[in-house]
């Protein structure tokens, strides 16, 4: 395909875009179970306006756009406070969970080299940890060592103890992990890391903007944050359950000094002057920062408590409804709003195919085979319809079905 010779008129252009978009997943109708976290039309309006106001700015140079610097500082400070960071905690906004994790691993690698003389760094992460850790190890030259899981899908602490070596640069736990929605035994994992003088990272990309509110609502949430002395850094994605539009996560460090020493990249050996940045990207879109700041301030504690309650109650109703269908089972005992369900007697992948035909987008998992759901407040309105289609799928997945006209 080549660039059009003459530009396409605006109306025609957007007509094409709208027509193409029709084939995309209908997340507004609650039909997707990952990727997007809708929080209501009022929140959508706030996000659209924040994006519109900052669509052209560039967050590379905070001196040119002090409003962006102020928003970033405030987002980091609010997040560190949610995670019980000490007064000296620091952090930065990145483009997403993966970039926050890359930064946590990079800081740990530098610390390992400078503080402990480690030359062959190892990253010790649970088998269920997000692939971003494998990616970070691959990009940054660490050996990726996996901690096996216990039967309850949480990292096996005894195994982890045996896998720490003199070269371990970072130990990781998830709060919660993506595949089964369970929180790893962070206190024990961080404890054994601390005993060996190794930093520990909590991946709260999913839980950072959910668990603090569930805890406040009275749900039993094990400690996962800076209240645990061994936790050195935490990633928390405001573009997941923080309900911001995509492109915003926060990497927080127990000590801002550690971040300045090991995360900041400064360079002036070129003609263009001093260049500095805290993460992978050079030029950075401003809109995700504005969206993150706006949604956090718009919702506040009250808004997040309301949405977390709605998401958790929806999860519990789905959990109960799924297990009421003969043959289906939630594999783990999830701590938050993620569910993975499968079966010992039915073909769960064939059930997933029938659900696809009925317009539901469920991700597939293996070991054990499962269909996966990240539940948002937006799913409350589809609980009955989803469970009725799932019951149908569980009873009829042997037969092939045409695409359901209701959702085509
Ligand atoms: C537990 C966990 N960590 C990290 C990530 C990576 O986040 P992102 O997709 O924003 O890079 C995800 C994404 O789903 C996740 O579930």
What labels would you give this structure?
4-stranded antiparallel β-sheet; single chain; 408 residues; alpha/beta; Aspartate Aminotransferase, domain 1; Aspartate Aminotransferase, domain 2; 15% strand; disordered C terminus; 2 domains; 13 strands
Describe, in plain words, how this protein is organized in 3D.
- The protein is α/β, with parallel strands linked by helices.
- The protein folds into 2 domains: 24-41 and 300-394, Alpha-Beta Complex (Aspartate Aminotransferase, domain 1); 47-296, 3-Layer(aba) Sandwich (Aspartate Aminotransferase, domain 2), CATH 3.40.640.
- It contains 12 helices and 13 strands.
- It has helices spanning 10-21, 41-53, 66-82, 97-116, 131-140, 157-163, 186-195, 211-216, 256-262, 287-323, 348-357, 383-396; strands at residues 90-94, 122-126, 143-147, 168-174, 200-204, 231-236, 249-253, 265-267, 275-277, 328-330, 338-343, 363-365, 370-374.
- The strands form 3 sheets. A 7-stranded mixed β-sheet has the order 1-7-6-5-4-2-3, with helices on both faces.
- A hairpin with a 7-residue loop joins strand 8 (265-267) and strand 9.
- The chain starts with 9 loop residues before the first helix and ends in a 12-residue tail after the last helix.
- The model is unreliable at 403-408 (pLDDT under 50).
- The structure holds pyridoxal-5'-phosphate.
């Amino acid at each position: 395909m080549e660039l059009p010779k003459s530009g396409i008129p605006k109306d025609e252009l957007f007509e094409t875009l709208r027509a193409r978009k029709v084939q995309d997943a209908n997340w507004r109708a609650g039909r997707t179970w990952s990727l997007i976290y809708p929080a209501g039309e009022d929140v959508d309006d706030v996000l659209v306006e924040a994006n519109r106001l900052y669509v052209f700015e560039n967050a590379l140079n905070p001196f040119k756009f002090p409003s962006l610097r102020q928003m970033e500082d405030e987002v980091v400070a609010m997040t560190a406070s949610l995670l019980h960071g000490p007064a000296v905690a620091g952090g930065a906004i990145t483009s997403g969970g993966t970039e926050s994790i890359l930064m946590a691993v990079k800081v740990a690698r530098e610390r390992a080299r400078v503080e402990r003389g480690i030359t062959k760094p190892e990253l010790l992460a649970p088998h269920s940890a997000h692939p971003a850790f494998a990616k970070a190890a691959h990009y940054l030259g660490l050996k990726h060592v996996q901690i096996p899981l216990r039967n309850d899908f949480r990292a096996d602490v005894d195994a982890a103890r045996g896998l720490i070596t003199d070269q371990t640069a970072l130990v990781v736990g998830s709060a919660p992990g993506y595949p089964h929605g369970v929180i790893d035994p962070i206190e024990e994992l961080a404890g054994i890391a601390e005993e060996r003088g190794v930093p520990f990272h909590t991946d709260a990309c999913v839980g950072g903007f959910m668990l603090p509110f569930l805890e406040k609502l009275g749900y039993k949430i094990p400690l996962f944050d800076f209240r645990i002395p061994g936790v050195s850094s935490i990633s928390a994605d405001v573009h997941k359950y923080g309900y911001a539009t995509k492109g915003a996560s926060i990497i927080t460090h127990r000590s801002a000094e550690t971040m300045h020493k090991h995360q900041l990249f400064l360079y002036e050996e070129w003609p263009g002057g001093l260049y500095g940045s805290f993460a992978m990207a050079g030029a950075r879109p401003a809109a995700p920062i504005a969206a993150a700041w706006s949604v956090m301030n718009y919702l506040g504690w009250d808004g997040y408590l309301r949405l977390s309650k709605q998401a958790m109650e929806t999860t519990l109703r789905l959990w109960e409804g799924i297990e009421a269908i003969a043959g289906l089972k939630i594999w783990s005992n999830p701590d938050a709003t993620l569910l993975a369900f499968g079966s010992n007697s039915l073909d769960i992948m064939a059930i997933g195919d029938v659900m696809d035909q009925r317009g539901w987008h469920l991700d597939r998992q293996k070991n054990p085979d499962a269909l996966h759901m990240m539940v948002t407040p937006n799913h409350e309105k589809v609980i009955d319809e989803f469970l009725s289609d799932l019951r149908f799928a569980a009873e009829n997945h042997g037969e092939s079905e045409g695409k359901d006209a209701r959702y085509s």
